[in-house]
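To assess whether ligand presence alters the predicted conformation, the chain was also submitted together with protoporphyrin IX containing FE. Input:
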Amino acid sequence: MSIAFESAMNEPVSLNVQRELEKPEARADLVAVYARLRRLGPVIRSRSLLFGESLVLTRYEDVVSALKDPRLASDRRSITDGGKGPLERWWMPNVIKLLLDSMVMKDPPDHRRLRNLVQKAFTPARVEALSGRVERITEELLDAAARKPVVDLIADLALPLPLTVISEMLGVPGPERMQFRKLLARVVDPGSQNPVGFVLNYPHMVRLNRLLRRLVQLRREQPGDDLMTALVQAEEGGDRLGEDELISMVFLLLFAGHETTVNLIGNGVLALLQHPDQLRLLRDRPELIDGAIEELLRFTNPVGTVSPRFVREDLEIAGVRVPKGSTLTLLLASANLDEAAFAGADGLDITRSPNRHVSFGLGAHYCLGAPLARIEARVAIPALLRRFPGLRLAVPPAAIRWRPGMGLRGLEALPVSLSPGD
Ligand code: HEM
């Protein structure tokens, strides 16, 4: 690199991005907060106690390039020769430790080996075959909801639908599903991502680990016609899957299989209720549903950021020097709302085409469950609109509460009334 080139490099602005994004007002108004971050620069230097320092990418173009760049690793060990990051050094079990042996934090060749083990179960054709089951679960949930005066769309539809579907695919029995859900909610709560929260949540993390081991043991003793049994058999086969990898795989599939789609359905319905013109258009022209789901993915950002990327060699991103060993945070949500990539990015337009959002990521780690998430939303949202023409919010918009956290973006609850008002 020449001296003239070095001196032309920009120094990024410093800001604790995680703290900014976790403010309640930021959760409610994504458009404003990400516009501000993009104005601060394409790269922001951010530091947090548990996650250390990272360079945060805010613009669509840079996020897309980074997602596809083989010089970036998903496994921190690729850049540290086995050295550990802050959360891995932490003596207590935590979610990062649990995910460390899963495909999402692996690079080739382990990434491919792990992904291949489950890839077939999630192809569009295999998932399409599940659509009848998705429809039946949706109808049952809506029947139960119709009997209530006020419905919480999260607890009554958006959460149980994907949780039931992924649990059935994996072979998780009924009582363990809600147990998993409750423990998960505790351990991914951002309140648990500071040293005090970590300590307080320690018992939940231990229980979650025990539950995962019990589930695997159950399938070892009573094999079924499900994905977990297939994984247990792959593990018993020896060289394809280790014990820790098996536990991490089950955790990742159960976690990613519902914690994300609940947000797509919940945030999606809220966005439609808040954009009555778009809701009317979708009711009048139900054939627009596929494009509508893509736009809801872009606009409501059920997943705001991916797990960190680690820089294997010196790079330059948007005029900023990024040395080998740096950690990058890719803000998918900011990319999706970038005016430079989407005309009228701050508005909801269910007819948008093309719509090259990055809500499912890109490249080697592109979301394995994208076809499943799309089918669940494509069944649930139209069924809700068809059955309840009077659907409306049961609380003022200001009373709607978002779950805290930077990675996933979803609602605590979505109280609605299913019948028309006076
Ligand atoms: C990966 C988003 C639903 C399973 C990802 C990634 C994103 C994402 C952004 C990339 C992670 C990275 O690059 O580090 C979403 C969204 C969903 C959704 C927005 C729903 C609206 C699902 C479902 C499953 C699933 C239903 C079902 C099991 C996975 C898995 C990976 C992944 C296993 C890791 C893939 C890999 O590392 O190769 N998802 N996801 N996701 N997703 Fe999803």
